[in-house]
Amino acid sequence: MSCLAYLAPSAQRRHAWWRYMAAVPLVIALGACGLFGGDKDEDPPADLIKFKSTLKVKKLWSTSVGGGSENLRLALAPASNGVHIFAAAHDGRVAAYDPEKGRRIWRNKTDVPLSAGPVAGPDHVIVGSNDGDVIALDAKNGVELWRVQVSSEVLAKPALSGNLVLIRTVDGKLTALDIDNGRQVWGVQQSVPRLSVRGTAAPVVTNSLVISGFDNGRLAAYDLSDGGQVWNLLLDPPQGRTEIERLADLNATVQAVGNDLYAVGYQGRLASIAIESGQLLWSREMSSYAGLAADFNNLYISGQHSQLVAVARRSGRELWQKDVLHNRDITGPAAFGSSVVVGDFEGYLHWFDPTTGELQTRVRAGSDRITTAPLVVSDTLYVVTDGGKLIAFRGVAPKRES
């Protein structure tokens, strides 16, 4: 969806500019988006098809986290530390909930426009803001432990590793903070193109490395201890004559399975990479900004036009592709039991069979858009809507007739 692209700011104007752009994304696909003429319905979202449901889904509970974030494209998604479910809202509220009943354990009003997180560990909950605030809360009671300012807007879920908090900001920086006090331990930076797609790939920790994609089409791995670069791969070389054609953002968070890493670019390739060396194992044409998920055998990718694609993890061979949600602006997928689940712009959740790609069932979480991929914890799926609702679902296969 090129409607999400915007121009990168100068460093001097970064805080005010990014706050403004969080509320008013610069639309660049003029014909497709209907600005300055053109047909608004040139390629409309697909209507929902009727089908026979083969899966029963139970809504466990629903609760309001806080104020909505419609059309802001924020990285606010539920998180778990194995004890509680945590969620944050754009109006600054962060809360912890009982995973079974949805009872609120605690809530903290941070009073900043939150844009990313939370990420949760045994003792800490971390969130980031449009203004570059990074805030650490006590996971047990929500009390604020520390608050620091980083270089620009945080639009990617932070990552935790031991005594480090890893933060990716929209100015191309990856920063490691001390989890006890927020002090910067190390920082690295990649170049940022003048035109980029709104969104930032979250850092991923695996082995002794932190790995992240960047807006310049590069995927890089850094040593957790000191930020030293271990490898740097140009996964998506910019191509084309115009700046729009040359968008090469790696906004989808990478997936690590065993010794292999999987990444997909906005207008480029899906690739498998060896984690330790950065060696490219295989690649194929694929475009996505929403994301991908993995199970033991397969990868599932939410494509640029909301097609859902399954490929073999070892070879990259396409297994199936479903276009029934064409242009419905689906989320990244979540592998959930014997299903693959995505949300869409009308608040629907769609369950697909991971073997055949056939629809299993559909439920509506609410009328607001679902922007971030669902969270799976054991046998429960959690989703946050842009209206600030947190909802828990559980799927149960129907009984076979004897």
Query: Biggest β-sheet, characterized?
Result: 5 strands, mixed
- Enumerate the spans where pLDDT stays under 50 for 5 or more consecutive residues: 1-38
Strand arrangement across the biggest beta sheet:
3-8-9-10-11
**Helical percent range?**
under 10%
CATH topological fold name = Methylamine Dehydrogenase, Chain H
Strand element count: 35
Form type: globular
CATH architecture: 7 Propeller
Oligomeric status: single chain
CATH superfamily: YVTN repeat-like/Quinoprotein amine dehydrogenase
Number of helices: 2
CA gyration radius, whole angstroms: 20 Å
Average residue-wise pLDDT = 87
N- to C-terminal separation?
47 Å
**Secondary-structure-derived class:** mainly beta
- What is the C-level CATH assignment? Mainly Beta
The overall number of domains is 1
Work out the strand percent.
Answer: 35-45%
